Amino acid sequence: MNTNGNAQIAIVTGASRGIGAAVARRLAKEGFAVAINYASSSAEADALAAEITSAGGRALAVKADVSNAGDVRRMFETVEQQLGKVDVLVNNAGVLKTMPLADTSDALYDQTFDINVRGTFNTLREAAARLNNGGRIVNFSSTVLALKLPGYAIYSATKAAVEAFTQVFAKELRGRNITVNAVAPGPIATALFFDGKTEEQIETFAKMPPLQRLGQPDDIASVVAFLAGPDAGWVNGQILRANGGIA
Ligand code: NAP
Question: Ligand 1 mean position to 192 CA, how many Å?
Fold first, then answer.
């Protein structure tokens, strides 16, 4: 609830499946009205909005390619018109294709930076003008940045940029009572993780954390709910590595 006693409004980018969908479900359960952003998976986003609405929550599926500044501006306008002014922004949309740096095409480099970095930049810039004071921003990094894994050079570089945005933007929003943090998941059982991996590779990743399993989208949704909720009010400019203990 905000100071007027109304439900708070959250935008979750890339919420049609995977971690973003789990975050949207969790925030709706916590009483947020949730904007479910997607770029192309309209059926999944609509189904999630219907699921949340039929459970008594408020949700809206909003199409916007986060790498396109005009789309992002229109997404905020639509959400403001249909749900209200935004309190929480979760920058979850992201892509990964593992590839040795030497084999990476210009197109793959551009696509990864456009969605992971420019996408986060676009929503942060829009949020600076539009987010309610007292709001929360949660960005998405990845534990692979710290692991320095071969094949992840481009992806890790995009997440390094997101971590830099997080730490600097937290300071730039001084005086607004808005926190900016990032969560850096380890391997999570989603399409992004499974795509292109052999059973053997999946097993290797599952054994990496001392907790000896893959993370589930809900493991990250609860971290995001913490960062978006009242208990994290004094946590700002931090990268929370939620990865079952991989180091
Ligand atoms: P996922 O299952 O592939 O889902 C990605 C979501 O992003 C989808 O809803 C997709 O919707 C959306 N999306 C992609 N491009 C978009 C764009 N240009 N504009 C708007 N939405 C877009 O991925 P995930 O595993 O849940 O990953 C979520 C985040 O966690 C990413 O930032 C990822 O880097 C990070 N992460 C994941 C893991 C992991 O192991 N899974 C680990 C560390 C960090 P459309 O189909 O409509 O495009």
Answer: 7
Q: Hey, is 164 helix, strand or coil?
A: helix
Ligand 1 atom closest to Cα of 140?
32
Helix (H) or strand (E) holding 183: strand 179-183
pLDDT confidence bin for 247, thresholds 50/70/90: confident
Residues with CB under 6 A from ligand 1: 13-20, 37-41, 65-67, 92-96, 115, 119, 140, 142, 185, 187-188, 190-193
Residue closest by Cα to atom 33 of ligand 1: 94
Best residue among 25, 38, 118, 165 to mutate for probing ligand 1's pocket (most ligand atoms within 8 Å of CB) is 38
Which residues are the active-site residues?
155
pLDDT digits (tens, 9 = 90+) for 188-234: 999 999 999 999 999 999 999 999 999 999 999 999 999 999 999 99
Model confidence at 169: pLDDT above 90: yes
What pLDDT score does 5 carry? 55
Residue 99 in 3-state DSSP? coil
| Residue owning the nearest CA to atom 34 of ligand 1 | 94
Closest by CA to 32, choosing from 234, 224, 247, 240, is 224
Q: Which of 161, 105, 169 is nearest to 137 (CA)?
A: 169
CATH code for the structural domain at 9-240: 3.40.50.720
Paired strand residues for 183:
140, 240
- Residue 2 has a pLDDT of 54
